[in-house]
């Protein structure tokens, strides 16, 4: 049986006037992404690039429109020369033109560790 990592999000309260809903700090990122999902009766397959990344989500600039609430499968082409990182379940949280944000719901233990390692390397590089 394949081990799966469910990403847990810490509970953080925001004031009712706050528009920031992110629960974790995001790091700027730039790498390729392929995404797919179902929108009604249509299967969508899109390409794009990451604009930022956290343990719990990422911002994407894509070439195929998505809608809030859609479930997507992602392939992240990190710059670590390994095979693409596979996110089996992500949900679209917001959209703005070709930009959208997704919340990562499910990823394998190995790929979850790769995300954490990538974020650590980014934090060191940006410091």
Q: What's the CATH superfamily, by name?
A: predicted glycosyltransferase like domains
Low-confidence stretches: 1-20
Q: Major β-sheet, in short?
A: 6 strands, antiparallel, barrel
Q: What characteristic shape results from the CA principal axes?
A: globular
Helix content: 10-25%
CATH architecture: Beta Barrel
The largest sheet has its strands arranged as: 3-4-5-8-7-6
CATH topology assignment:
Thrombin, subunit H
Number of helical segments with 4 or more residues? 1
CATH class: Mainly Beta
Can you offer a commentary on this structure?
A 6-stranded antiparallel barrel has the order 3-4-5-8-7-6. The termini are far apart. It is mainly beta and 127 residues long. It has a single domain, classed as Thrombin, subunit H. It is globular and about 40 Å long. Helix content is 14%, strand content 47%.
């Amino acid at each position: 049986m394949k081990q799966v990592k469910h990403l847990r999000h810490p509970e953080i309260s925001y004031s009712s006037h706050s528009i920031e809903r992110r629960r974790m700090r995001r790091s700027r990122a730039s790498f390729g992404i392929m995404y797919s999902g179902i929108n009604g009766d249509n299967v969508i397959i899109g390409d794009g690039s990451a604009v930022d990344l956290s343990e719990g989500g990422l911002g994407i600039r894509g070439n195929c429109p998505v809608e809030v609430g859609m479930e997507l499968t992602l392939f992240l082409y990190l710059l670590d020369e390994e095979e693409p990182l596979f996110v089996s379940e992500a949900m679209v949280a917001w959209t703005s033109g070709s930009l959208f944000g997704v919340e990562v719901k499910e990823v394998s233990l190995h790929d979850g560790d790769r995300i954490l390692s990538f974020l650590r390397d980014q934090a060191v590089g940006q410091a």
